[in-house]
Design brief:
Elements: E1 7-14, H1 21-31, E2 35-46, E3 51-56, H2 59-70, E4 75-80, H3 86-96, E5 104-106, H4 121-131, E6 137-138, H5 142-149, H6 156-163, E7 169-172, E8 182-188, E9 193-198, H7 208-221, H8 226-242
Parallel strand pairs: 1-2, 1-4, 4-5, 5-6, 6-7
Antiparallel strand pairs: 2-3, 7-8, 8-9
Helix pairs in contact: 1-7, 2-3, 3-4, 4-5, 5-6, 7-8
Pfam family, one: Phos_pyr_kin
GO molecular function, one term: hydroxymethylpyrimidine kinase activity
Organism: Herminiimonas fonticola
Length: 263
């Protein structure tokens, strides 16, 4: 009898502070009852304050990592995070073509929480053109959605109208909005939409987008439908922010695992 947890292939960057990137993916997926298979796309120099540098790995190394996972493990979900270059976007497309019918969550990471760049805008455009059509759902925050849609001052609705021809589902998160409450808006190509509201917390958070996208990938890997998976992942992410730690001089780190997780 196979009692293995669903396996989610994570293609993203490494954050040495552990607040975001692949460590965030691993912790969030563990909390969903899934197993993360982290494939490193880039190395970064960052902490809770900001990112100062990054280096994208050679495509051959990333392909080899992914091949080692795919030839051995049964992948039930995929989470895409920081890619860092147009060439890496093309590399990831090659990997995704080997895993048809597996749900894909694309978190178009272009900026760190502190505002530092993790890829030029043309990386976002390449993701829009080549990755979003393969994804089950994309999870940009509003600044990222504006970059992807090439609408510097666009509203969520305007960005969604521009981006839905590229993807099936689009979740534009509202942490950067100015509403009293946070409005997370889910748009679907069939014209349906849903808004999920939650209390706006006072802090600033490092790795919240990674946390949400990974939790969502986990819920989809577990077999939940898109709407249920989004709602579950948003609720989980809000709780990690509510209970966040403040270990450094900058942003808070989401607490993705309870204190008694390994007790």
């Amino acid at each position: 009898m196979n009692n293995s947890r669903p396996i989610v292939l994570c293609l993203s960057g490494h954050d040495p502070s552990g607040g975001a990137g692949l460590q965030a993916d691993i912790e969030a997926l563990m909390a969903q009852g899934c197993h993360a298979a982290p494939t490193v796309t880039a190395l970064t120099v960052q902490n809770s304050v900001d990112v100062s540098d990054f280096r994208v790995l050679d495509s051959e190394w990333v392909l080899a990592q992914a091949d080692a996972v795919i030839t051995d493990l049964s992948v039930a979900g995929i989470k895409l995070g920081m890619l860092g270059s147009v060439k890496m976007v093309d590399t990831v497309v090659q990997i995704l073509q080997r895993l048809p019918h597996v749900p894909i969550v694309c978190d178009p990471v272009l900026r760190a929480g502190g505002g530092g760049a993790l890829g030029k805008d043309e990386v976002g455009y390449a993701m829009r053109e080549r990755l979003l059509p393969l994804a089950t759902i994309a999870t940009p925050n509003l600044p990222e959605a504006r970059i992807l849609a090439e609408l510097p001052n666009g509203t969520p609705d305007e960005c969604a109208e521009k981006l839905l021809p590229f993807c099936k589902h689009l979740l534009i998160t509202g942490g950067h909005g100015d509403e009293h409450e946070v409005h997370n808006r889910l748009y679907s190509r069939d014209g349906s939409s849903s808004t999920f509201t939650c209390a706006r917390l006072p802090g600033s958070y490092h790795g919240s987008g990674c946390t949400l996208a990974s939790a969502l990938a986990g819920r989809l890997a577990l077999g939940e439908d898109t709407l249920t998976a989004v709602e579950t992942a948003l609720t989980y992410t809000w709780r990690t922010l509510r209970d966040a730690d403040h270990p450094g001089k900058g942003q808070h780190f989401p607490r993705r695992l309870p204190l008694d997780f390994c007790a």
